[in-house]
């Protein structure tokens, strides 16, 4: 066995240490994602998603007669971008809800969803080195936060919820997901 010193990179995650904190980020991975998406010279986006944007399936649009948004032709490019964004959520909980939402349309993405993915990459461009800050100060204070809405998904009438758990100043768990089906009466 050989001592290689302090860990600096592991599976594309950069580990930066100070006396009081440890920062985990995927800056190099994020910069590669931005470059490969062709968005190096683009404007930044202030938020991961447009406010109040509704996401519907192609089947829902067919039932309602909406023909404004067509299916994106390069499905594999959409899937590849979502896969890369999913890996980036390892150290970027701020994008996890947007990526989870966009990943629901992997089989039949629309052009507007592709554009939303590109907006998300432009958001990441604003701070590619953002990550998770772990405090080395011992603390046993456990905090948990959750948020949900009731039947917000227009396709399934499911509720969307998420949670965040912190131990001291460090995030130890988070999730944003769809939950319980609501019966239609």
UniProtKB/TrEMBL annotation:
PANTHER family in the cross-refs: GAG-POL-RELATED RETROTRANSPOSON, REVERSE TRANSCRIPTASE TY1_COPIA-TYPE DOMAIN-CONTAINING PROTEIN
Name of protein: Reverse transcriptase Ty1/copia-type domain-containing protein
Organism expressing this protein natively: Solanum verrucosum
